[in-house]
Amino acid sequence: MGGTGVLMQGGIHPDLKIDWFESLFTASSQRFPKIWLHCLSASEILAIAEYSELTLRDTIIRLRDAGLDSIPGGGAEILDDEVRKRIARLKCRTEDWVAVHRTAHELGMRTTATMMFGVGETVEQRVNHFEVVRKLQEETGGFTASFPGASSLTTLPLAVADGMRPPPSSTLRPSRLAVCISTTSSTYSPAGDTGP
């Protein structure tokens, strides 16, 4: 079919422990050895570690050894805990998201960073998000891409009808800001989380 990679994020389930994901990644890698596995958000990896009673480091090592190639930046939303508490209170805190990506980078894996803007955050909170990503990139060099995307809440027909959709200039600003701040990322992509 011409595919070269798989992006998989599916949520958190307490019955899906490390051995389930190891089996999935090992079978996928054996059957399709040329397919790049870009899978699991930071929140999912943290949950797998918790449910499997493993350290974060050991969890990522086992996932990597089973065939996980890289980790997407999904679930980052806005890396500012004031915003996260309001829009994603069940997802991990900023420091936990950073810990997952830092650990993966230390283990030689590459990851991506995303931003979902348009959820009522301030410009300062957007800058805070980019600063978190920039600092980690300077420390590890492990991000292959960084890209912002508008929340689907701002693009749904109902949102447009209700006047919630931001003007085009406000959706371009985060993209321009990402380019300016993320000067050390090897790639910038406004298109979506496509992995390395």
Record the SSE blueprint:
Layout: E1 5-8, H1 18-31, E2 36-39, H2 42-52, H3 56-66, E3 70-71, H4 81-87, H5 94-106, E4 110-117, H6 123-140, E5 143-150, H7 157-161, H8 168-181
Parallel strand pairs: 1-2, 3-4, 4-5
Helix pairs in contact: 1-3, 2-3, 2-5, 3-5, 5-6, 6-8
Could you explain how this protein is built, in words?
By secondary structure, the protein is α/β, with parallel strands linked by helices. About 45% of the residues lie in helices and about 15% in strands. The chain has helices at about 20-30, 40-50, 55-65, 80-85, 95-105, 125-140, 155-160, 170-180; strands at about 5-10, 35-40, 70, 110-115, 145-150. The strands form 2 sheets. A 3-stranded parallel sheet has the order 3-4-5. Helix 2 (about 40-50) crosses helix 3. The longest helix has 18 residues, at about 125-140. The protein is globular.
Key phrases:
two-stranded parallel sheet; 8 helices; disordered C terminus; 196 residues; three-stranded parallel sheet; 5 strands; alpha/beta
Shape label: globular
Distance between the termini: 20 Å
Tally the helices. 8
Average pLDDT confidence is 83
> How much helicity do the residues have?
40-55%
Assembly context of the chains? single chain
In which order are the strands of the major sheet placed?
3-4-5
Residues in β-strands, percent: 5-15%
Q: What are the low-pLDDT stretches, counting only 5+ consecutive residues below 50?
A: 155-165, 184-196
Major sheet summary line: 3 strands, parallel
